[in-house]
Design goal:
About 75% of the residues lie in helices and about 0% in strands. The chain has four helices and no strands. Helix 1 (about 1-15) packs across helix 4 (about 50-65). It is an all-alpha fold.
Length: about 70
């Protein structure tokens, strides 16, 4: 399970979710459980890890009102 958490964390960092946001989520058992459930649901729908991370990152950005500029 720890490898799965590490993979999720790193994938979301790859899609520019701030580490401070992820740290807050990963410190809260309920938030982490919701994140893992969402990840698993998208994966079971056939999303790749990158597609799953992009979908979840988009939700984070929408919820915390962050806009990421293309590099």
């Amino acid at each position: 399970m720890e490898i799965k958490k590490l993979n999720i964390y790193q994938r979301l960092r790859d899609f520019q979710v701030p580490s401070s946001v992820l740290d807050m989520v990963f410190e809260d058992k309920d938030d982490l459980a919701q994140l893992i459930n969402a990840w698993d649901a998208l994966k079971s729908d056939g999303f790749t890890d990158d597609e799953t991370a992009q979908e979840i990152a988009d939700i984070f950005f929408k919820e915390i009102n962050i806009q990421i500029e293309d590099e």
